[in-house]
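Good day; I would like, with your permission, to put a structural problem before you. The record follows directly beneath this note:
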Amino acid sequence: MKKIQDTDKKPILRKVSLLQPKSVTTAIVPLRPQEEKIISERERLIAQVERINQMAEELEVAIFELKAIANTLNTQKSYPVLNQEPDKNICQYFTVSVPLVKRKPDDSFILTTRRVDLFRAEREAILLAQQLRQQTKKRLGSQPHRKNKSDAEVDTKRLFKKVLVNKS
């Protein structure tokens, strides 16, 4: 029987130059300390939280775009492709929410949802229109009533003269 030589114990020879062979040994990579692993897992968690919240924002924008497209189709009043009545809305809306991850003061997280208010812009526009109407009524109510156009023209000319004098 022939004895087989164990080659694992010999250094590996690799030619670096033509003149001198150099031995190469492989080293074992040291294990990471446990703290570094925890920190990297914490960083992954925070990155995932940010990703979820970013996707929620994108989803909310997409929902508002859907509503805008539906409103455009509703105002066109013609639905040849959809075979719908002109008075009927193309889209119905119910309560909508998107996922949200909140951070608590103790640095823990809560996975919850946030309500998307689809009609906030319309309510704000109505409120602004009401405020502007009230301001206009107040201004018109505080001005003296003009009996004829010539009195208004005289007052306008006096106003312009005052403005020109003040600027020069």
